[in-house]
Every structure is written in structure tokens, then in C-alpha cells.
Amino acid sequence: MNKLALLFAYMRTLRLRNRFRTREELAAWQGRKVRAFLLKVRSQSRYYRSRYDGLAVEDWEQWPVMSKTEFMDGFDDLNTVGISKNEAYELAVKAEMTRDFSSKIGAVTVGLSSGTSGHRGIFLVSDRERAAWAGTIMAKVLPDPIYKKQRIAFFLRANSNLYETVQSRLLQFHYLDLLDPIEQHIARLQELQPTVLVAPPSMLRLLAEAMNRGELRLQPKKVISIAEVLEPLDEQYIRHAFQSVIHQVYQCTEGFLASTCTHGTLHINEDVLVIQPEYIDEERRRFLPIITDFSRASQPVIRYRLNDILTFREEPCPCGSLFKAIETIEGRMDDLFYGIHREDGQQRIPVFPDFIRRAILLSSEAVMEYRVSQLSPMELEVAVKLESGNNAAAEARVRQELTDVFRLHGCLPPDVHFTTYRLDAGPTKLRRIKREYGTAGAEDAPSG
Ligand SMILES: [Zn+2]
User: Which CATH number is 149-253 given?
Assistant: First the structure.
């Protein structure tokens, strides 16, 4: 492992934190970084050379946007390390089957993303980028300076070389496989007493429940939620059990997008990438992020549209950082619900996840957990866990609130039926709000 690259990235991240006095200064610096990056990539990647042929680098902010499908289809020519998709896929699948994640192709780590929308993504990271990534994430995430000892408990769906990078004398990483039973995790964590606990919110929730039952006693310095949307309801529950701010790392195959500061505000990592908003509602509040990551050249991400629905935080953060912050990660575009226009009976009208979320929370204070699936534009399946067991009155209110949301959008009210609530923390990502039909072509779904 390239310790020097790691340390360099760590120092760089700390230095950049206080380097800019205004947004303009930051934007100018980013512009210079991006232009230099694009010139380099265009000379190294056959795909980008032909895609952006003849376009002026100064106008990069208007260059054509890339979809996930294009990104994966162009894989072989797009990456700059000469790895084919077949080769990468074979290796990643084998690693997943044998649960041996140490294999690489040359100096490149291959990983498989947990695709929620059907097709899976493959990512490539060079050794140097891996070390730089580790340094950046340590500067942003660790509760103390790098020379302080930490025991980090890290829940993973699949172990990856990416995380092995950070193993050192001072940082002990302990991986917990999400596939293992919860009793085993509780016993192991109890003994380990991690200083940093990193897990998807569905797992944090189960651990919080075990804490509340007195079966688990932990006092980590930092609790970090990853890989799934941290719903306000879960955030509250987990925060209460751990008596601390719940931090977030917002990362995907396309980059290390954002992480929380000491105040728990989710700042965009504008020191490694640029996020341009593509607004998708009339109020210009919700957007899909267009990502340009100027810190990673092995598999360059340029003007890439991610399918997550985000909103910006309006007020500045008390931490003083100039980096923009994300108020909410509403969910994935694939989980956008659609209603049928009340008058013409045909037109599909988008209903954003946040409306569904709020409808559930407004309906009853007794709702502890929930799941809402849209089976068709006229059919919702709901599962709620209530404080006091089954409760017909609460269910009726949930039904009312949900049908009201559709009415307010000018849509026909859907059928709402109830099913038993279950939480499976495991290999499948938890999505409390989920659309179960017509995911194909969701990328092109109409907006606003
Ligand atoms: Zn902040």
C-alpha cells in the first residue's frame, strides 16, 4: 500500500478545509482542477476522446451528460487502465462467490456495486487512487487525528480491497459481514467495543434495538451510516440509543460524494469532485447530481448523472465550511411513485418519496417503522410497525394520509392495503419507499 499517497491525501484534505475564503475562490480552483483533469483524460481514454471530440474544455459545464447505461456500455474504452468489462466482471463475481476479496488485476482493484436497479456496476480503482481515497476519507471521517488509535467496526455486504487499504497499527479495521446472524454481531461488538461504528442504517437500527433491550452496551466516539438512505425516523431512533450525532458517508461507485462535519451536516466533497444540480421539479428544489470527479483517472467519471434525488441545504453550516451541503437524500429516481391524472385518466404524475415519507410520519406518532411499495400506479402496499402492536385506527389514518397525497397531486387515489412489517438487515439494501414496477426506462421518467 502506498502510505505516502495516503498521507499526502490526508494532509491535502485538512489543508483544503480552510484554504478558500469565498465560494468564488473555491469554484475557480475547482474549474482549474477539472480542466486539467479533462485534458489528461481525453488523451488517455479512447471513449472520452471520441465523445468529447472538438468540445472546448472551457465549456465543460455544458458537455453532454452521461447515463449509467452509457458508462457501463463504454467500459472497455472508457477506463484508462486497459481492463475489459468481461475480465473485471469475472473477477468481481468470483470474489463475491468465494468471499475472497484480495484479487486484483495488476495494480487495479475491481469491485462490484450493489445495483438496486437491476444491472450492476463495476468499478476500478488504481492502487494510488485507493491510497488517496483512504487518506481523504480518514481526514473527513475519523473522530481524532490520524495518530490516535481507533478500533473500527465496519459492516459490509462484501469485503473489498478498498477497505483493506486502511489497515494499520493505529487503525484496526474489523469487518463484519452483513450476511452473518445478528446474535453473532452483538457478541462480537460487545467484545470489540469499537471507537467507530460504520454500518447501513438498517443494521444500526437493529443494534440500537439491542442496546435498548440491554443486550448490547457500546460507546463509540462516532456512529456512521452508509450505503442506504438514512430516514429521519431511523436517524432519530439510532441517535437516541447511541446518544450521539449519526454521521453519514455518502459514497457510491461513482465517487465519494459527501460526508458529515462535526455538526452532522452532510457536506459535498468539493475538494475531490464537482456536483452540478439537474433540477427535476418545478420549484427547482429537487435535483439529480451531475458528477465530475477530478480525483480519479483510472475510470473517469465526467458529467455523470446519478439517479439519486437530492436537495441542497439552504442555510450555512455553523462549522463554517464553504462546501455546499445536502439537506436530504430523498431516494432513488427508480423509486419515484407515479399517480394517474384524475381527469384524463392516463397521464402519469410523479410523486416524490418525501411526500410519502411525510404522509406516514404525519399519520400517527405510534409509527416506529414502515415500508411502502407501489405495486402499480393504483396500488400501494404498506407495512407499519406500531408502538402498540396492531391498530386499526392507525392503519386507517395511514391510508387516509397516503390517498390524500395522491389527491393533492391531482391523481386518482390508489388502493392501499396492509401487510406484516419485517426488517431484514442483510445483503439487500433497505428501501423504505420502493417502486416495484416499470423500473426499466426510469432514467427517462418525466419530471415536474
Ligand atoms: Zn458543517
Answer: 3.40.50.980
